Amino acid sequence: MIELTELQQDALIEIFNMGVGRAASAMSGIFNEEITMSVPSISFQSRVEAAQLLGAQESQRVCGISQTYKGAFNTDAILIFLEERSLEIVRLMVGESVTDEELTELEQEAMSEIGNIILNSCVGIMANIFNSELQGSLPSYLVGTSQDILSAKDHPDDETVLILHIDFGLQKHQINGYLVFLLDMTAMLNLQQQIDQYLSGLT
Length: 203
Fold this sequence. Notes:
- The protein is of the alpha+beta class.
- The protein contains six helices and seven strands.
- α1 packs across α4 and α2 packs antiparallel against α5.
């Protein structure tokens, strides 16, 4: 597995923090309250290791919003929350007057909108900084165990998975989520090259 240097990882965290900052601004308008978002850590795992990390319990169900991007590097990007957390997010988004039944009906549409905002904000910042194109598909909504969701993308078990741990801060709530990028060897090398070009531009 290809690994980034400490400098490359720091640069990537900085880039993603800019992306989630943009997403937080957009989401603050939807939730009608200030939202703060940050990327406290990133890690690289195999797909099997990533599934174990994202689902602490084998049967634990998660909600995923996925988009495929092609361009400077090709990747499937997936925003992942625990399933109960996704319902909490939708409740905050649509208000307390909505019944539980209506909430479940709205979950897919609302989470797809949130996923689209966060994924495109992060990827858009990367495209701007790398001065490259990254074109995305429409979002797909997935529910199941973390293994189910990562396996649904039909990638090899030993493929590199870039995991970002994202903290969402609302006035009365703290919600953790993960942003996952599935990268084959070529995509990983391309990402590394793009980061190096960004760093060389800074100096």
